[in-house]
Amino acid sequence: MTRTHLFLAATVVYAAFSFSPLMAQDAVTGVAGEATPLKPRDAESLPPDLKKALDLWEDYIHYLRVANLEMANTAGSGFLGLNLPSEQILTVIEEISSYTDYDETLQRTERMGGAPSDLAKKVSERINDARLDVAREGKRIRESITSLDDGLRARLNAQTRLKRAGEYAAPQLLAVILSVDHEDQILRPYVIETMVTLGRPMVAPLCEALHDLPDVPKQQVGEVLSRIGYPLALPYLKAELDRKDVSDDTKKVLKLAYDRIVDRTGVPVETSSDRLFFMLGEDYYAHRESLIMEPDADFNLMWTYDSGTGLSFLKIPTPIFADVMTMRACRRALQINRGLSPAFSLWIAANFRRENHLPAGAEDPSYSAKMQSPHFYATLAGPSHLQPVLQRALADMDPDLALDAISALSSTSGAISLLNVQGSIQPLIAAMNYPDRRVRFEAAFTIARSLPQTDFSGSQRVVPVLSEAVRESGKLYAVAIAPDTEAINSVTQLIEGAGQYRMLLGNSIDVAMAQVATAPGVDLIVVNQPMDQALATVANARRISKLAATPIVILAGSGEVISMTRMVDDKPMVYVTDREAGKDKMIEALKQAAAAAAGGTLSDDQAQTYALTALGILKDLTFANSTIFHVADAKPALLEALNDTRDPVTLAAADVLALMPQPEAQVALADAALAGKRGAAMQVQLLQDLAHSARANGNQLSDLHLRKILELVDSAKGPVADAAADAHGALNLPTSNGVELIVGN
Question: pLDDT band at residue 421, thresholds of 50, 70 and 90?
């Protein structure tokens, strides 16, 4: 049965399809169940590929209108599957097809939902893409420009087509203004008016060309920019006004344009061009939507101008377009004023972010092969330019940029520069309280490695963060604060539902501190108190270095949630949830808070690398006898690490404990060495660390430990026996022990 026969049969079976929303009112006639009659056409004269496309297209629209969705899906999918060139698609649907009102049919289908809606959206998107492709063709753009003086109706139609072409029309429109051809000179007034009509898409390309235009075209472009009134033009106009080689007549036109736009925007009229370019860079960096022509497209255009070839563009992947344009604006600012330090810092930040956001497999055509890596320019710039980059990263919650900035600072700076002693900001210290653990760790590593010789605000945070890194992938600890036993038990149940935590309990932070002090670290605090007490608990927790970056969740009554949220809005890592919302919702709130603090899941290899790095730094601090960083504060984490399932972590912790003078450290080493549960090689190394501790700090063990060591010396063989004997001697045990072994054997 042909499509025409099916149409004739549709009226017979109308009732079967009366449920369809499409049948409520036909897209063309307004009568339910009726479809637009086909216009006569000579389909047989079409090329085979176009005939097939036409049949599928008209079948698709027809079956949508009679609500035969299964047949419509087959025809529509088949039409898309042909993958026709854009021009052929438009030829079929706009020039040959009988259905001239297909847009409304597609829109109705899109509102249905489900599979028909999804397919209709795909078809609409392909049609829109085809329209853009065809509109942007150079030949069609020129035809539209030529039609601008063919009368009012032709002009309006041409402008409609040029609007569809958007900024792609700019090169040919500007070429007409520059042309000496007689026909182009006739078109020039219409082109200028059309540029104004097109508006925002013209601004970026015209601004880019402005500097290199002759006086008269420069005046004409200045007038266009003035009438469009878009703030993007301000730095470019100001830069031209500052030039000495621009004629007075041209400056008058440009000054009028500049003043007109300034009046609209409120920018101080005396703002220098370098500052205006820097401000433009800031706007691009902030991803101002008005500066990105097609935010949903795969790429956007960066314009360049050459007096010989005219306007041209580079296709920049949209995820990095704002960063590329930030760098460009900052470069212009620095060309004008090489001492504009904020522009240099912003350029560095944008370059790092450009690299971080470049899609996999994509290229940045704006970054030439002559350019070095972002890290190269960052380290070249030095700490005075890197500190603002890190400050920006922390404020923007951009952990990747923060890590880039810390890495560059670590490569170039000493303690004075790192801590920004002479500056007004100390972002590296603030980074130790950042939600992402990677940023916290790298900041603490960098500060500790610099071995500062004088104390500084925030120094007390370094060792707790190092301890946190040692514990990475280890046990989790949570503090439950509530007024009484019953309330504490309720909070404990919520925490246990959110993860595998060891509980530290109390009715205040002060009460819980005895347990907090001995814990390697704290991963979560949950507070169930009246509003005033809860706020006091938050303030008290943040005064304790070990708790400075711990996420805090306040359980508030339903009537207090909004006001409590406002009160803690400026406090990072503090969250409020409704205690009456139900157990599952509260548990989910705890999970989200903990996840926000963690900064994402680390792989096992990453966690071990961080732990080993922190342990290595703690060992170096101990050797250096640092008076700024108190390694003893890391003792709970080191003791726990002796039981870590990762052998390298256990041994690295033992190396640090061997250097510590506290008896508890030597006792823990003896316990671990005597246990011998992890193989002979591990036991040998632990015994060697015990011997090291004894040589450095003397014998601090109990008689029980000493008897067990003697027993091990007596019973062990091979390397274990040698290591046990070494420990025995280092502990300066009685000589008679050795004599007895000789005589007895």
Answer: low
